[in-house]
Amino acid sequence: MMAFERERQRMVEEQIMGRGISDERVLKAMRTVPRHEFLPEAIRGNAYVDQALPLGEGQTMSQPYMVALMTELLKLSGTERVLEIGTGSGYQAAVLAELCEKVYTVERIKVLADKARATLDRLGYRSVALKVYDGTYGWKEMSPFDAIVVTAGAPHVPDALVEQLREGGRMVIPVGDRYGQRLIKMVKTAGGVITEQSVPCVFVPLIGNHGWKE
Question: Are 105 and 89 contacting, i.e. CB atoms less than 8 angstroms apart?
Fold first, then answer.
């Protein structure tokens, strides 16, 4: 366990701070959440390497830097209600839970959702609500959200997600084709949506009625 602790601190220093992530709250969350606990036993030894990792079911856990970057772009202060689309292992949800009041996360693959729920419960993340559903619809009954993060690549931004963002809210989503995307940050204002482009990235496709078809 001490080895994992040391690797986690090194991950934050080299992969995250070393690439310009400076939000102290985000850095603390990345130092705190035990990334290895969210991975299949066979690959836990790779938990803190600088790459995405396979979860099974054709899904991956995002590279640590990408988790930190997407989280920093949300500019969380601690009081927010955040929607995550694509629970995967539950790791990003745990990082968010360290930084906001309530996390709502949606996963379409039940076996992954069940594993994520068990891990989150075991580690004491009680402020995370999880639903098995088509994430491209969001979670309307719990909206509006202060922030939304989408952890799969979309062909376009689903209208339902924009609608579920409160005025002043932020959304971070990878948009592009199936083989490469660009991270987009959106801020919803009274006059419309302000969009900023961030880094190129590669995520698994966002499958759903308002995303890619299977």
Answer: no
- What is the dotted CATH code of the domain comprising 2-48+58-201? 3.40.50.150
Amino acid at 124: G
pLDDT per position as a tens digit, 93-131: 999 999 999 999 999 999 999 999 999 999 999 999 999
Residue at 210: amino acid letter: H
Nearest partner of 204 among 163, 161, 154, judged by Cα:
154
Reduce the DSSP state of residue 112 to 3 states and report it. helix
Pairwise CA distance, residues 61 & 12, whole Å:
17
For residue 68, CA distances in Å to 91, 141, 192 come to 11, 28, 27
3-state DSSP call for residue 76?
coil
Residues carrying an active site annotation: 62
Q: Is the pTM higher than 0.70?
A: yes
CA torsion angle 182 188 192 194 (round to 10): -40
**Is 112 in contact with 87 (CB distance < 8 Å)?**
yes
pLDDT (tens digit per residue) in 9-46: 999 999 999 999 999 999 999 999 999 999 999 999 99
Q: Are 137 and 160 in contact (CB under 8 A)?
A: yes
CB 151 within 8 A of CB 69: no
